[in-house]
Design a protein that fits this description.
The chain is mainly alpha-helical. The protein has six helices and no strands. The protein has a domain at 31-118. Helix 4 (56-68) runs antiparallel to helix 6 (79-154). The chain is rod-shaped. The two termini are 14 Å apart. 3% of the residues are buried.
Length: 155
């Protein structure tokens, strides 16, 4: 009597790739351009400017800068000039930095959630692989029992 495995485990291609090569969570630096000096410089410069403008200290500095022209806007006694100062000077300057700060905080939280999800998925993958190994070991024992019972019935 021939014995065959009760179950043939075929890992998913992503599982196989992860087990063979190992992977890590995607990082922002992985997404930056790597082709051409100009593209690398532009990305580096944009990140530097964003990091500089995206601070509350920069928002405070922009607010102080905007306040320099407030007396002139008020003394004009023109509602159009005052509204223009509020919308085009104060809000644009100050909110720019505040929004970047908020986006940085939200992005950091999203990165932490994504990394936690990645780590959880990685742990589940390894648990499932161990479960597959356990099932294969049980299959081998079951095959031995079946073979022993078949030989006992023939005798």
């Amino acid at each position: 009597m021939t014995t065959r495995s009760v179950y043939d485990y075929v890992p998913h291609h992503r599982t196989k790739e992860k087990l063979e090569h190992g992977t890590r969570p995607v990082k922002v630096s992985d997404q930056l351009p790597h082709d051409g000096a100009a593209a690398r410089f532009n990305a580096w410069f944009a990140v530097k400017v964003t990091n500089g403008v995206g601070t509350m200290w920069c928002a405070y500095a922009f607010a102080a800068l905007a306040l320099v022209s407030l007396p002139s806007a008020v003394s004009s006694k023109s509602p159009v000039v005052l509204v223009s100062w509020i919308s085009q000077t104060f809000l644009q300057l100050v909110l720019l930095s505040v929004i970047i700060v908020g986006q940085n905080v939200l992005a950091a939280a999203a990165d932490k959630r994504a990394e936690a999800t990645y780590n959880d998925a990685d742990a589940v993958l390894h648990e499932v692989v161990k479960l597959q190994e356990h099932l294969l070991a049980q299959d081998a024992i079951l095959q031995q029992l079946i073979s022993g019972a078949a030989h006992g019935a023939q005798a």
